[in-house]
Amino acid sequence: xxxxxxxxxxxLFIIILNFNGGEDILACLKSLQLIKLPSKWKLGVLVxxxxxxxxxxxxxxxxxxxxxxxxxxAKGMNVGIRRAIKNGAExxxxxxxxxxxxxxxxxxxxxxxxxxxxxVIKFKxxxxxxxxxGGKINWWLGRTKHEEMENGEWRMENIKDIDYVxxxxxxxxxxxxxxxxxxxxxxxxxxxxxxxxxxxxxxGFKVAVEPKSLIFHKLIEGRKKPLKQRLHxxxxxxxxxxxxxxxxxxxxxxxxxxxxxxxxLLR
Length: 267
Hints:
The chain is built from seven helices and twelve strands. The protein is an alpha/beta fold and 267 residues long. It has one domain: Spore Coat Polysaccharide Biosynthesis Protein SpsA, Chain A (Alpha-Beta Complex), CATH 3.90.550. The termini are far apart. It has helices at residues 22-32, 73-86, 106-111, 174-180, 192-202, 227-244, 250-266, and strands at residues 10-18, 41-49, 62-66, 89-95, 99-101, 116-122, 129-132, 135-138, 143-146, 149-150, 169-173, 207-217. α6 (227-244) runs antiparallel to α7.
């Protein structure tokens, strides 16, 4: 009798950081229930709860990891990444709590040969603007920027070489984590995604956006960030400048950082 060999399934864990997610995270988790996977992959979903008062989330197939305090984005996500790796994950997908995914978004992500892959991110289902086609770094100012464009102009050839993938939706393959480690926890909020991708590229890994993969982000354009959030932005920006900006470009980056400080103080 001829033996039939069944390929062992690989595991992908989707990790969502919950902080006052409310209805948004419920919509996110609902969209994940409809997604399709290649046959050689199986899916796990981890929600890392960063709320001081634990959220009463009880959903079938979703594991809740409770921190009982706000650890920030990088440290909170690392809690989930460690658990996923411990449970045998071959890849992890970091996903924002206010994202809603297309049911087929995972298939092209998993088929992409890059080591860190992100989808195309749109503002919302009815929106005409593509919010993120990967990120670029302004090395003179020490700032990061999402590549955006109007929906009608969005074509595969528009997605060129990028510096980083947004932490809103970032799939990381296990060898990257084994070689360079987890997210840098000095970044409480912001810049951790750019930092991680630069570390990965420096180690020889490929970073890319997959144009056939699409998700939607609830981000409200023009919304004013709370003061505490803007201060986290400044702190993380300074850490990023000190670590990554070449010394001959640091003067302009520091000058621009101080301009941002005064802007915040004068508001």
